[in-house]
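User: Could you go from structure to sequence for me? I need the amino acid at each position, not a summary. Structure tokens:
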């Protein structure tokens, strides 16, 4: 006796599962100019590399003779794939099935995916296109899908049955009992405990990416922020509550695009890192992002064989910084001149624009590039720039990526609005992130290094500072400091403007790094053309030490 009938039934169910929500559901998806979840996965991963998990999750109906009548799959497609030859796990919402609603599955499939990611230590890519829970959960209905089971119903046994309501189930969360007490843990065991807690947090273990590819609301919208890198297409939107909820709660009518378009989420809120022209561009950016990262925190970022001369000296750098302090310069071009050719990938370009954050390579090593952009608020650290800075430093420290910081910072943003926005608190948080980081951290002071914001130029641990001859540093920039310190002298002068200018020029000369050789933390002054060789030399020196810090990073205590 063979198991042919059962295998034929299984294959039939798999075939029906691949039809997703059927012709009508697929047609609705195509009418919006969007791909199906299976088309998306095929575009994202290497050809023929996807191996689906849970191929027969869903609702199967059988007649009295146990013959399969119909099968409707769950609302997610998950499995293993490869990106540039490296294993990843993909979890995609299927909008053709009940709009991708997360209550379209029995239990919470996300927990199963999270377990896969944690156990196998593979990067996770979430393809989001759907809503969260629904008030339909309060009705009696038959729920479909499961991460671990098939729901079988006979045709004559489909009476309405109560639904078990679930929790929000954010993947990667880790909770201790409320009465947990670690005071009895001896010091020798405390590190093991803390490491265990870090392992309970998915973001402390593997790269996690979220892509917004349609209308994403509720629980899935939370997933947009629960990652290291998020991206959305220009025609997509995401929000915690959609227009009907906004209308009911606030009496305001809005469209989905008005409420959650990329200008809201990527530019104003910073909830999404990057924006893609279309889905193909989104997948290209995801592949590029992952190329700089290790598969997990127990590995170093992957170095590739460089095709660029490590000793390359760009003559343009020698005249790159204008002598006129009021002239602007392009920090993206600066990074491109020093990093390996065509290796930069900018993150969060629309948010916190006084600060530029990139991933790049130098001598084949992945590095994180940070630069103050003088074209926005003179490069002063605004609240959004501080948030962006803190988040980026934590990300790079988690995955052992060295930082290269091109510093031209006049300080933190001043003014009433900045104070209302909370600059004091967020400035502290940014500086705490630098303090906590244990990665190689290279600062090149290209022009200004002033005030408390100079803490962004790390000097403890594996931090080192270099400076160009154009560099200057002090407690306050001359323009503001002179006015504060010499207000009476300036007002009493025959020509106040001339007096102020005289004092400013004097203190600008005194602030030059060439006038500060006796500082307690001196900066090595280098020819701008030697920046690339200097960075490479330091990364090579610290590479072996960085390799001793593999595993989850433990951050004890709290930030302001």
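Assistant: Here is the amino acid at each position, in order:
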């Amino acid at each position: 006796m063979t198991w042919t009938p059962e295998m034929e039934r299984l294959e039939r169910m798999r075939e029906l599962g691949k039809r997703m929500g059927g012709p009508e559901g697929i047609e609705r998806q195509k009418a919006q100019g969007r791909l199906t979840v299976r088309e998306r996965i095929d575009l994202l991963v290497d050809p023929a590399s996807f191996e689906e998990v849970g191929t027969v999750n869903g609702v199967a109906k059988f007649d009295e003779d146990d013959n399969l009548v119909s099968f409707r799959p769950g609302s997610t497609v998950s499995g293993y794939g490869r990106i540039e030859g490296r294993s990843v796990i993909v979890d995609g919402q299927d909008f053709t099935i009940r709009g991708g609603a997360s209550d379209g599955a029995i239990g919470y499939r996300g927990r199963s995916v999270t377990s896969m990611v944690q156990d196998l230590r593979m990067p996770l890519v979430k393809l989001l296109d759907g809503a969260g829970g629904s008030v339909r959960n309060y009705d009696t209905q038959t729920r479909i899908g499961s991460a671990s089971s098939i729901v079988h119903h006979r045709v004559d046994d489909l009476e309405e049955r109560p639904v078990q309501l679930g929790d929000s189930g954010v993947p990667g969360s880790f909770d201790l009992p409320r009465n947990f007490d670690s005071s009895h843990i001896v010091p020798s065991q405390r590190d093991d405990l803390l490491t265990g807690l870090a392992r309970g947090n998915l973001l402390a273990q593997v790269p996690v990416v979220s892509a917004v590819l349609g209308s994403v609301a509720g629980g899935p919208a939370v997933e947009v922020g629960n990652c290291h890198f998020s991206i959305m297409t220009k025609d997509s939107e995401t929000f915690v509550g959609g227009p009907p909820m906004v209308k009911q709660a606030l009496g305001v009518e809005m469209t989905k695009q008005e409420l959650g378009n990329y200008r809201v989420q990527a530019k104003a809120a910073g909830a999404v890192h990057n924006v893609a022209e279309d889905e193909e561009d989104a997948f290209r950016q995801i592949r590029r992002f992952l190329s700089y990262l290790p598969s997990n925190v127990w590995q170093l970022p992957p170095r590739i064989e460089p095709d660029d001369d490590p000793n390359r000296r760009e003559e343009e750098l020698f005249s790159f910084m204008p002598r006129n302090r009021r002239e602007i310069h392009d920090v993206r071009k600066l990074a491109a001149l020093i990093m390996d050719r065509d290796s930069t990938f900018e993150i969060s370009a629309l948010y916190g624009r006084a600060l530029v954050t990139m991933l790049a390579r130098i001598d084949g090593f992945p590095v994180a590039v940070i630069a103050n952009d003088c074209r926005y608020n003179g490069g002063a650290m605004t609240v959004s720039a501080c948030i962006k800075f803190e988040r980026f430093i934590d990300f790079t420290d988690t995955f052992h990526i060295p930082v290269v910081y091109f510093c031209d910072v006049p300080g933190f943003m001043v003014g009433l609005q900045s104070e209302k926005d909370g600059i004091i608190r967020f400035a502290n948080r940014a500086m705490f992130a630098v303090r906590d980081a244990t990665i190689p951290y290279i600062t090149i002071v290209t022009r200004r290094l002033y005030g408390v914001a100079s803490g962004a130029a790390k000097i403890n641990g594996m931090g080192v500072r270099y400076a160009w001859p154009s560099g200057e540093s002090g407690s306050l920039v001359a323009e503001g400091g002179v006015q504060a310190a010499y207000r009476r002298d300036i007002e009493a002068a025959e020509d106040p403007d001339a007096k102020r200018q005289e004092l400013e020029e004097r203190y600008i000369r005194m602030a030059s790094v060439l006038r500060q050789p006796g500082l307690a933390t001196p900066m090595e002054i280098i020819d701008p053309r030697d920046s690339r060789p200097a960075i490479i030399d330091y990364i090579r020196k610290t590479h072996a030490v960085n390799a001793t810090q593999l595993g989850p990073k433990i951050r004890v205590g709290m930030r302001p």
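One structural detail worth keeping in mind: The chain is about 35% helix and 20% strand.
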